């Protein structure tokens, strides 16, 4: 019966319905379970066959609103500490809706000078925020994975050119293997980027001094000195298990001395640069050849949001432009078509939430958020340290706290099993969310605190839930 052409335009009404739900949903977020396992059955309401005749705008949006706000994971609330997942600031969230409202085709300048200009401004503000030179080129990406891909694609272009090959035109076939060196902190997404670029996921040479993955700088230095041609170094600013950093300044020195490319994966760690209390962790990042980070983590803009910066701006166009299609705009320095500068073609105007959050809260807002999270992480670190049945496994440096439950006197293999169970129970419980990892061979919890809504009360609750479940499990041992 219903098709969008003969239904009266109900978009405004449907948006109003979502906005009304948003009021109560957001107000209720702090009091909800992060995920309520009892709502899994609601997912069935998504199912069924493709409707032959649609149910109409209002009915389908009403259904989806119900399912999403009931069975969805409330990860934008204050107690989701699993992975590294940020929330959405009020300004960013509203701007994200606006992005859909005006639905810009933001890859090509002629389709939306507005979106292109907003992206240029957002990138300029981000460089300023992170202390990166304004001369760097940049592009917004869907994620840090794509930002790593972007930086490493530029590295690859640069490296191939040193071998006399235009890799954009001719590919890798006539080239040797590109040397890529990193510490044990290298993130799987950097490997995935290398895999997509045709270098192979496992070609990264890892120089780690121990099981934590911390860099073995002398070994990396020796390897660099032994290489004939240019190499690519991946430095990791903020690793996901304990929030540690590679020594970026030293890597920049090495890259300079050996003519190597330095790519920094700063998905969340780049934000250390916005506070004088933590900026030492990323000292030297302004000397990198390429830098990747996420917006949807610590900037607290909605998914999907990442950004890449490159010291030599032309490389973006050379790695990603040159479509050779007569209907697409050629690279132009003032009327920028961002699809020439990154891996995507058509793309949404993801600059808008970034612009809005930076405009709304400014440099001081970003700094205050990072410092609050640092304080909360330090607070959690102290709670862990003072509890006789908990063990802090790494010093708290930024926003990740790596620890495990360790009842006094329990044998190591039982401690392992206990923490594996604890990880499962925590997610099943649903009051708070955190994930486990393997850190120096030990199963550990690694909550990441990067959501603007999180308060000390949430952290205290997190800790008491972990302790409660840990005690219950160890009693039944
Ligand atoms: C999250 C993360 C990534 C990947 O980011 P996505 O946004 O998930 O693609 C890369 N590196 C580090 C260090 C990360 O924490």
From TrEMBL:
Keywords (A to Z) from UniProt: Decarboxylase, Lyase, Pyridoxal phosphate
Top-rank taxon: Bacteria
Signal peptide: none
Keyword Lyase listed: yes
Cofactor(s) of this protein: pyridoxal 5'-phosphate
Pfam families: Pyridoxal_deC
Family statement drawn from the similarity comment of this UniProt entry: Belongs to the group II decarboxylase family.
PANTHER family the record matches: GROUP II PYRIDOXAL-5-PHOSPHATE DECARBOXYLASE, MIP05841P
Protein name (database record): Glutamate/tyrosine decarboxylase-like PLP-dependent enzyme
Organism: Kibdelosporangium banguiense
